[in-house]
Amino acid sequence: MNFVPPSTSPGFYTYNPDATGQVFAYDFGADGKLVRDRAETCWTWRGYLGNDIRARKTIEREKMLPAAVREALLTSGHACHLDIDEGWLYGDLPDLRHDYSMEARGLSHFRFALNDQVLLGGCKQPLRSIDHVRQLVERGARPFRAPCELIEAIIGHSLDGLSGELVKIGEELDGIEERIVLDVWQSERQQLNESRRKLVLLHREMATVTTLVRQLEHRHHLDLPLPIADMAARLSNRAAALIHDGEQLQARARLLQDELMAKLTAESNRLLYFLSVLTAVLLPMSIISGLFGMNVGGIPLTESAHGFWTISLVAVAIAGVVLYVLRRAGGGRMM
Predict the structure, then answer these.
(1) 149 to each of 183, 320, 332, how far by Cα in Å?
(2) Whole-model pTM?
(3) Angle at the Cα of 157 (from 155 to 163), degrees rounded to 5?
(4) What is the pLDDT of residues 26-62, one digit of tens each?
(5) How far is CA 114 from the centre of its chain?
(6) Tens of pLDDT along 182-235?
(7) Which of 145, 174, 191 is the last residue of a domain?
(8) Which residues contact 189 (CB under 8 A, 6 or more apart)?
(9) How many domains does the chain fold into?
(10) ∠219-88-55 over CA atoms, to 5°?
């Protein structure tokens, strides 16, 4: 009998496990659709809450699991891997977690193990790809005739999620580029740095999926079952295309960073030029005021009624000459 917790909102499932740590279970018939009669079941998909001790004990008692597969499902921490042992395909892969709005909220991981009759999966947080595939299963929108078809759908939707994140970052870069061109870039450094940080994280996860799938094909190219080999080839091609798109966005972000730094450098140079000219113009006045401010005898114009104005005019004239020389030397550049 299928155990499906009630949904709190469309696309979101509560992760409330039963006494065995199981969150859901689906039985599939020969046509790839859900069945209620256990006698018609061809294969089963069972999902567990990864941080529930009851789920760990249930998996430990699964006699059909090879030792290496059981250990991979129960190991602490997360290290992405993908392998096959005694007919079981198992691994730990990245996915986008979400909240009640189904919006992506960073990366998390899901673990799985499958053979021809069962798919076991576990995660510690709500994952968008798994909940999306659960919707497809419950609506009967797509048949899944074998576990490898379903895991391909989960990984494919995960890659679609990463692709969607790349599109959002591309739109962010469009806005940043437009503001840089319009010279309204004073607040863009932080946003550009954040976009580059997201790109680094996404590229790392996409490269991880591509590497794992290719390593699986390379290590087991002689004994890899045909359905899994076809699945691996399709996923490898999709992930490689996403890596290419991510690398293009990274190159674009670096170009925008260089352009932004060039504008910052030009602005700093302009301010330094202005301060240098101001210092040069005021330097004669400072020297004159320093000389006439000495408390010694023999200072000229001390007894003259127009001495202050005379010295001021001389200082202004010298400052004007200095400014003229600097502007000529600078090619007539305006401050």
Answers:
(1) 51, 82, 72
(2) 0.72
(3) 105
(4) 999 999 999 988 888 999 999 998 888 998 899 999 8
(5) 29
(6) 887 777 888 888 899 989 888 888 888 888 888 888 888 888 888 888 988 898
(7) 145
(8) 260
(9) 2
(10) 130
